[in-house]
Amino acid sequence: MTIDGKNPVLSLRNIHKSFGSIEVLHGINLEVAAGEVVALLGENGAGKSTLSNIISGTILPSSGEMTWLGAPYAPATPRDAIDAGVAMIHQELMLLPHLSIAENIFVGRYPMKAGRLDRGEMDRRAQAGLKRLGLEISPRRPVEGLSTASQQLIEIAKALTLNAKLLILDEPTAALGSEETKLLFEQIERLKSEGVGIIYISHRLEEIKQIADRIVVMRDGEKVQEFDTADVPIRTIVEAMVGRSMEQMFPPLARPEDSQVLKVSGLTSPTGRFRDVSFSVRKGEIFGIAGLVGAGRTELVRSIAGADPIQTGTVELNGKDITPKSPGQAIRNGIILVPEDRKLQGVILDHSIQENIAYSNFESVSKSGWMSNRRVKKFASENIRKFGVKGIGSQMANEMSGGNQQKIVIAKWLARNPDVVLLDEPTRGIDVGARSSIYELIHGLAAQGVAVVVVSSDLEEVLGVSNRIMVMAAGRQVGILDHSEANDVSVMELATA
């Protein structure tokens, strides 16, 4: 098969991947030619990373075949892929800041001479790789302190010194400004002219039109659309990305009261992850925050909850400035956060359900500063029943399903009767049945007059649960949509602006 007269260097045929009984890739076919940029698009969870990890040797497919340069290709490790000429540049850069640029480029495969490191040869080869990408910088300089764009190019130089003929770039511009992005695109064009094939994963649709030759769209583990040009209207691409029908698993939305509970004004992060964000949430309102990876959503709610510092701006609760400097201060004022990573930040896995619930409610289970086992059991049992946790208090948290672990996290905080609940990715990794019960919990909170903020990468979810939705892109607040005007396309158009 040819692609516009070019023979593909990489071909995938009927690639399937299952984790246990769940199939996450369903018969993917894909070709990439030398000197071609193929944009691989899709929502979070569409299967892009799984497919990329198969190509780069991180995971094995369950079935299907791949060919590379016309020969069978089945990398069992990333080293197998690299040795073949396939390299993946991850979104999270993996450089060692205390080492020099040259040391980072050749880490694990330093050139040796007479049993010793040949630093001169290492520097010479590193300099050649950097020059190839237009990066005029000494290979002996430490990586620490370099711009993100320069570090990105060093990762690419590292791959090129391995004679990579195919690069997989995962969200390469997520942390880059416009000038840095322009520099990266210039180097991609240079690599194309040298015959390097590129799989380019990005949520920024405008830049896809600048850099890609073809577009492949994935949804729910399937390749659903392929465009033989990047000159496609963004609306057409968005509709292909989000074209699945919405399931009827969301309770009907209640109308919130008029009184304002939470007011955020001009909030800016000292790290630049978000800036000048302002919104308010009414009593009984569910306020969704949507956006793509790197938009600053998690950092925003962590700051409101006192977990991350605030550079400028205020947080008001019921008309009073309570801008928190610590999580404890936020909790005492009535703001609680159910974090994104429940296993690392939400529950203590090797402790019991009742202990997990008690840890956040010492004043309710202790007497004169001493924990009372009887009080712990009684308090935990009441909240296990109230919030529908399937288990008994003495069970270990690590014995529970993901959905029940999430209910434990929610239960331990809701037992404090907060005014504001911040939920970061409340159903990540939870099956559909458990999701419905989480949604009922969220709507139940709103019905009790709690102001609820829901951060979610799942468009269906944020559209289904929210009275209003604030969309963020690259740390900026780009719009607030009422439930009646919000849909997959309108949110994605703002998120990819």
User: Structural class of the secondary structure composition?
Assistant: alpha/beta
Total of helices: 18
Low-confidence stretches: none
User: Could you say what the CATH architecture of the largest domain is?
Assistant: 3-Layer(aba) Sandwich
Query: What is the percentage of strand-forming residues?
Result: 25-35%
Largest sheet: 6 strands, mixed
Computed Rg = 25 Å
How many strand elements?
24
State the end-to-end CA separation.
36 Å
Give the overall average pLDDT: 83
Helical proportion, percent range: 25-40%
Find the CATH superfamily of the largest domain: P-loop containing nucleotide triphosphate hydrolases
The tally of domains stands at 2
